[in-house]
Specification:
The protein is an alpha/beta fold. The protein folds into two domains: 142 residues, HUPs (Rossmann fold); 136 residues, HUPs (Rossmann fold), CATH 3.40.50. Helices cover 42% and strands 20% of the residues. It is built from nine helices and ten strands. Strands 3-2-1-4-5-10-9-6-7-8 form a ten-stranded mixed β-sheet, with helices on both faces. Helix 6 crosses helix 7. It starts with a helix and ends in a 7-residue tail after the last strand.
């Protein structure tokens, strides 16, 4: 079995894309089916319909379901028109967006949603609140912006030496191989200001932090090369606060992969500060990898 066929054999789960007819969700749909084409994946389109307001009125519930199915059929037709070689299924899912999204993610290789910060459009389910949805998922989540994504290159991954970052690195290396892109490994570093004092850090301490970050980059490069020996790898040391540095480094990327530390219980519904900040300033399609879930292509 060749390396490529082994990779394709790993793609046993489907890519799940949330649709709702909005432009943010359409942008996610276009990106998601393109990703599916390049990774030889099947796609499930799902639409969430909250029937709570209609629970006491069967006639209204039936009409709501019919309208939901109509919208889902329209999105399916659109998806087939832009990706005729992809195998599609659909799912009209009653429930609340967060609950259905979490359930759908349990059987997915990747879940894809759109984003439109501050969207006030009526009936937009997946075009807003992607941070909350990403935090609740059991699988990697791709959050796709609405702006033009043409002429972009490189899979960028942010690393800091943590287990979470290493999982993101592994995913990014495999994605770069499948997509035929260069892998660019980014580490951002900065020296925090000393509180309530004008005293500056010494040049020695600054150099030690810089060297430690360089070592993290070198270690990440070696890990990625072991994961996917055939890909081109570049490292980038950025002197900046992590969110700002990552966002700037990925502004022209085809894909940005970021790890999100694993949590349990109620805290599981919150993203870490870096992944949260990146999604609030989304520079490219972003895939969030959880530390406490299996994530692999």
């Amino acid at each position: 079995m060749t390396v490529r066929s082994r990779r394709q054999a790993r793609m046993t789960k489907k890519i799940v894309i949330g649709v709702d007819g909005s432009e943010p969700a359409r942008a996610a749909l276009r990106w998601g089916v393109g990703f599916a084409e390049r990774t030889k994946s099947d796609v499930e389109l799902f639409y969430v319909i909250d029937l709570t307001p209609f629970s006491d009125t069967p006639v209204f519930e039936s009409e709501a379901l019919a309208e939901g199915q109509k919208m889902l059929d329209q999105e399916l037709a659109y998806a087939k028109s832009i990706a005729p070689g992809v195998t599609f299924t659909t799912n009209l899912a009653p429930g609340t967006p967060t609950a259905v999204f979490e359930d759908e993610s349990k059987g997915a290789e990747l879940v894809v949603v759109g984003t439109h910060k501050g969207s006030k459009l009526p009936n937009v389910i997946f075009g807003s609140k992607p941070i909350r949805l990403a935090a609740s998922a059991h699988s990697p989540v791709a959050v796709v912006p609405t702006y033009d994504l043409g002429e972009r290159h490189d899979v960028v991954v942010a690393v800091d030496g943590s287990e979470t970052a290493n999982k993101a690195l592994d995913y990014a290396a495999r994605a770069a191989a499948l997509l035929g892109e260069r892998l660019r490994i980014v580490a951002a570093w900065t020296i925090p200001a000393l509180p309530a004092t004008d005293v500056a850090w010494s040049a020695q301490i600054i150099e030690e932090v810089r060297n430690e970050t360089r070592a993290v980059l070198q270690g990440a490069k070696e890990l990625a090369a072991k994961t996917e020996p055939g890909i081109e790898i570049e490292t980038q040391l950025v002197e900046a606060e992590p969110v700002r540095g990552i966002v700037e480094a990925a502004k022209d990327a085809a894909l940005l992969v970021v790890g999100n530390r694993g949590r349990k219980g109620l805290t599981r519904l919150f993203l870490g500060s870096v992944s949260h900040g990146v999604l609030n300033n989304i520079p490219a399609p972003v895939i969030i990898i959880r530390a406490d879930e299996q994530a692999g292509l």
